[in-house]
Write a structure and sequence with these properties.
The complex is a heterodimer of chains A (293) and B (477). Helices cover 44% and strands 12% of the residues of chain A. Chain A is an alpha/beta fold and 293 residues long. The longest helix of chain A has 30 residues. The termini of chain A are far apart. Chain B is 68% helix and 0% strand. Chain B contains 18 helices and no strands. The radius of gyration of chain B is 23 Å and the shape is globular. The chains are: A alpha/beta (293), B mainly alpha (477). The interface between A and B is medium-sized, with 21 and 19 residues.
Amino acid sequence: MKKFIGFVAVLIVTTGLLLVVLDLLYTQVYLHSSQRGKIDYVYNSKARNYDVVILGSSRANNHFVPQLFEEKGLKTFNFGMSGGHLFEADLLLKLMIERKYSIKNVIIETDLNLSNEKRADGISAKFLPYIHDSETIEQQFSGEPDFIELYYIPFYRYVEFDNQIGFRELYNTMRKEPTSYLTNQGYHALANKKGRMKNDLTNLKPIHNKYYEGIKRICAENHINLIAVMTPMCTNVKGMDYFEKVNSIYPEIHNYENAVEGDQYFSSCGHMNDAGARLFSTRIIQDFFSKKQ
Amino acid sequence: MFFNSLSFALFLPIVFVLYWFVFNKTKRYQNALLIVASYYFYSCWDWRFLFLLVFSTFLDYYTGIQIEKSKTATASKFWFWLSVIVNLGFLGVFKYYNFFAASFSELLNGVGLQSSPLLLNVVLPVGISFYTFHGLSYVIDIYLKRIKAEKNFVDYSLFVSYFPLLVAGPIERATHLLPQLKVKRNFDFEKAKEGIYQMIWGLVKKVVIADTCATYANAIFDNYTSMNSLSLILGAVYFAFQIYGDFSGYSDMALGMSKLFGLDLLKNFNFPYFSRDIAEFWRRWHISLSSWFRDYVYIPLGGSRGTKLKQVRNVFAIFLLSGFWHGANWTFIIWGFLNAAYFLPLLLTNKNRSNLDDVSLHWDIHSLKVFWSMFSTFLLTCVAWVFFRAKSITEAVDYLQRIFTNQKFSSQYLDNERYSYELLLMITVFILVEWNSRTRIEPISGKYSGLKLTLCLAAIIALGTYSDYKEFIYFQF
């Protein structure tokens, strides 16, 4: 039995060592990547200058066309991330400030994503390779219920979020396989209408969102002009007073829910197609940046 | 509590420590601990079905003794049929009632009589097909005077409910397992080490091979109408490896963990995809079920004796029953029928026992023939697996038809955000590892075992599919 206990002990130690070695290996690969997505693009970068930085979910990613801003002489990048919540937008902005980005304006899409303070696993996982390398990321995740596992168990985060940062992503990162996330200055254009043109917002309730508050604070501290907007929805939306409820909590958020009308401008109820995005971006430029021409 | 879950990773070491350090004095203590652990394990699925398991165990235990005690053939027959009817009755109600009710209703509707089936809202108790067959084989063996009835209820209960085999086999025989339970087990380091290796290899098969194949197979089968010929072929191949990795991986884990307790279970798989004909495949695939049907259905029906017509009948009987055993769906019956049809030419030409030797390949013409035999047998099983995996016969036929009618062989981007061909490299590596270790229980032991063990652990950690958690396929049977 002694022999067996020794054998099992070797097995456990080997497994532990493997976890540590694999963790280090994966982390090193991600620390040298800056072309796979918006998070590594920011994390592994040095100071950049932007006139306009766009943050938010897919309703930012698909709705703001940086090319139109650039035509007006505004250096712009769309950091909106499909599926992302304000947890990730807040953290991304913190990392930009940490890397001494010079930003004049932040446009943040704050509407449906105001209704929760949860992290979006599919997006936030992309920050996790750097959790031991960055105090900012560590702090952001420190309030999460699975922080102890994510932080202290070697390789746990790579197993738990295999689809986002597991072996396959590692392999593609090592091969420097390009993605489309960084093309068109981060803007992802949607094709014409194919989704259902209905949405029910009756169950959504906007809250005092700590991550939005965080973004406001960062912008104020760093003299960044913050433009918070609610972006358009299709006409067939139930519970449209959601946007009014948002305004009752945060009157400074600009309501553009009806800025673009007509289903021909939508790909799905919450997402405009390219034509709609261009109309909307033009309107935003006109409303906030025309005086700066 | 799945074998590949965290809770089981805690459960198993606790039982192991108690077994060898606290309850190791006598076989009574050892068996008592294992039966408590097994009932706890089973109650983790659904404690209500524990009563069914205990009742079924008690029924077979009691009827077994009564059969043995019976002084007349009539009395013996009575107890025998009581056990058979009640056992099959439970199986019928829980597993097959809704199928028969729905099929009967469809039949009535087909002839113009309107009817809506009276369906039962019951969940299939996990492992019922396995422990029912344990009990049946025991009672049949007593009835046929092959074995003596077991008088010790704890020992008998453990034979039926032993947790490594309780929910998905292997289907044990009283002649094999009960004698091992009648003696105190002493710890054997080599056996335990072999058990650990086998468990680790089983885990590789499950989380690396089967669960990864599952993500591709599901993406292809669930969207088969938009898939081209190449993707459809790959889908069938991926499912073939999914079900093999899943079930043989489970069996390896069951056999491996049993060795930790000093017990040997029946071998359930013997590299079936290296079979040279379908008869050999069935001697290597789910061996404990195939041999069960052989011993308790095929041979009593006459087996390979009698006229060719009778032999054909017997072959179809066991394959159709085997299909039906898997589940109450026509797809499983067609799967069984197809295998019987594959078997038929071998039977009619008396070649069903021509490949009994070990398979090997060399650089000669004969090996080319052997390779072709293995490849064609694999293709035939893949066609049958399409029926096993599809939701309906229509879907399976449509799936196979599209392979021939689509005629496009480009790679396709699947719903799981991967290209259809991407898994071929991993499957090739797996086949090579299996081929090189086909004369052994697992590929880890032997030369460079430390390195191979490390590679297996690294594969489990880094290549395992965990985010899209999948239970063992055979738990549903």
